[in-house]
Amino acid sequence: MKPGLKEGNTAEVEITVTDEMLARFEDDSVYELYSTSDLVHHMEWAARQTILPYLEEHEAGIGCHVSLSHRMLTLGGMKVKLKATVTDVRDSKVECEVEAFNARGKLARGTVVQAILKKDWLEKKMREMSVIANITSEPQTSLL
């Protein structure tokens, strides 16, 4: 990684909750509220912004852990601001605390951990998984 990534670095993302981000399972609408799954996606996106300027050409960052407390309702059309703060940089892992806010206040907080990997290693693993996926569609628990 390039120098400069350290505890305290921050990144922010702002989104407007669209119809596609409302809670639903399959094609069934649950509520006209910002879904937790989309919130997780946006938390990962905010955390990713903290590492992008520091990745070398041969490196990739992938999410490897998310924890979240979704504490407040957010209606469609509302703006959400997410702030990721780097809390730990160790070995090949970067941990961020992410907070999300709407007009009423803090709607969520959580942690996102990203692993920094060599692209060639990741691509090799993806090719290996592709071969396995072509053999069977059943989960291979012996490989996990």
Provide structural commentary:
By secondary structure, this protein is of the alpha+beta class. Helices cover 23% and strands 46% of the residues. The chain contains two helices and seven strands. The chain has helices at 36-51, 119-135, and strands at residues 10-16, 22-25, 28-34, 59-70, 79-90, 93-102, 105-118. The chain has a five-stranded antiparallel beta sheet with strand order 1-5-6-7-4. Strands 2-3 form a two-stranded antiparallel sheet. The longest helix has 17 residues, at 119-135. It is flat, with a radius of gyration of 18 Å. The model has no long low-confidence stretch (mean pLDDT 92).
Quick gist of this model?
The protein is α+β, with helices and mostly antiparallel strands and 144 residues long.
What brief labels describe this structure?
about 140 residues; alpha+beta; 5-stranded antiparallel beta sheet; two-stranded antiparallel sheet; 7 strands; about 25% helix; flat
Give the biggest beta sheet. 5 strands, antiparallel
C-alpha geometry = flat
| Binned strand content | over 45%
Q: Tally of extended strands?
A: 7
- Mean model confidence by pLDDT: 92
Strand order of the largest sheet: 1-5-6-7-4
Structural class: alpha+beta
Query: How many helix segments?
Result: 2
Report the radius of gyration as a whole number of Å: 18 Å
**Unreliable sequence segments:** none
Query: What is the H/E string?
Result: EEEHEEEEH
Give the N-terminus to C-terminus distance in angstroms: 28 Å
What is the helical fraction, as a range of percent? 10-25%
